[in-house]
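Narrative summary of target 7.
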Amino acid sequence: SGTVPKELRDILFEGARRTAVVKLDNNQLSALEDGIFEGNSAPSRVTSLSLAGNPLLSVPLPTTIGNLAASLKELNLGGSPLSGNLPTELGELTNLEELFLGDTAFTGCLPTELLGLSSLQRLYVKAPLGCALPSAVGG
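Modeled conformation, tokenized:
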């Protein structure tokens, strides 16, 4: 087990000169370092980020996930027991097309901010959410 180091920030922001896909699947990750999604003023070029299949990753998703808004189209958190509420900052990911939340430990409701994501084409939720899905989802 281990953590995702802050040095990943170099890939997410400063280091990605071209479009990048970051897959950290099935790595027994146990934590995300504070500031992992905080970069300099350069926008991220990461179009796909996957933390799927990390069964020890039971921390809240950092609210700074919204900093990937410039380019992120796919976010896969499935199979990682990330906990707590889903941050409302997910609604800042205006280019997001696919969001996978299968087999997580998120609680609470889906943020209503997700309803404003006009690019979102697929939303996969298989978690014990604390409330029903908004009626606008799937309609």
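The helical segments are 8-14.
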